[in-house]
């Protein structure tokens, strides 16, 4: 199966104007730009601030670097899960890079995760689930969890998932194959706001023996 893009960056958004410009700057600075085909897919969930305008103002900057910008609107409010699903449905990439509207990706993030995902994939049907290192701001916040989560690699990702700390791969660092997303069927959007759609999705992936978990 051929894909139009190597990577689709998935951004769920609701009233994110305060943070979005810095988030977009992080994506514009990616070292993978030029060598990989990347699209930016933002799904807006009825924002009443300048979220959409900020994205549109940055559209030309992305296009000048060869990246497509796709803006979609969540059909009906359904929380973060519905926004993520909406963005994925608008995308055309082989791999999905999740980037929350208030998180800034380090410059080498997409390149390192794409290279690792490619090395682990035998075909477009490979089920790949990658995470990454992260830093919490302000510095020192959730220090214990951050240190623990950043140490999760290889078999630890599966074996230590059911601890009191939480998920072993933090959702804003996820980089997964579209094949895996399609197999799970996306995020649950038929539940109340506040439902942990990321944990639900992660645990479903853990139940798939052939799913490959790793951290870039």
Automatic annotation (TrEMBL):
InterPro entries, sorted: Glyco_trans_2-like, Nucleotide-diphossugar_trans
Gene Ontology molecular function terms on file: hexosyltransferase activity
Pfam families: Glycos_transf_2
Residues of the Glycosyltransferase 2-like domain: 8-185
Source superkingdom: Eukaryota
Entries under PANTHER family matching the protein: GLYCOSYLTRANSFERASE (PTHR22916), UDP-GLCNAC:BETAGAL BETA-1,3-N-ACETYLGLUCOSAMINYLTRANSFERASE-LIKE PROTEIN 1 (PTHR22916:SF3)
Record-given protein name: Glyco_trans_2-like domain-containing protein
Organism: Caenorhabditis japonica
């Amino acid at each position: 199966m051929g894909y139009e893009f190597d990577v689709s960056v998935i951004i769920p958004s609701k009233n994110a104007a305060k943070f979005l410009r810095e988030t977009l700057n992080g994506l514009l600075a990616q070292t993978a730009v030029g060598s990989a085909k990347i699209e930016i897919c933002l799904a807006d969930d009825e924002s009443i601030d300048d979220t959409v305008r900020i994205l549109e103002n940055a559209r030309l900057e992305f296009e000048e670097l060869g990246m497509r910008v796709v803006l979609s609107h969540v059909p009906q409010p359904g929380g973060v899960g519905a926004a993520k699903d909406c963005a994925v449905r608008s995308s055309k990439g082989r791999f999905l890079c999740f980037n929350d509207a208030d998180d800034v990706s380090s410059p080498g993030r997409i390149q390192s995760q794409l290279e690792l995902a490619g090395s682990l994939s035998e075909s477009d049907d490979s089920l790949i689930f990658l995470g990454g290192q992260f830093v919490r701001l302000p510095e020192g916040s959730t220090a214990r969890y951050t240190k623990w989560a950043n140490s999760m690699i290889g078999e630890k990702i599966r074996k230590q998932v059911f601890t009191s700390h939480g998920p072993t791969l933090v959702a804003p660092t996820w980089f997964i194959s579209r094949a895996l997303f399609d197999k799970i069927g996306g995020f649950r959007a038929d539940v109340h706001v506040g439902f942990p759609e990321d944990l639900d999705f992660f645990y479903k992936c853990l139940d798939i023996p052939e799913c490959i978990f790793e951290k870039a």
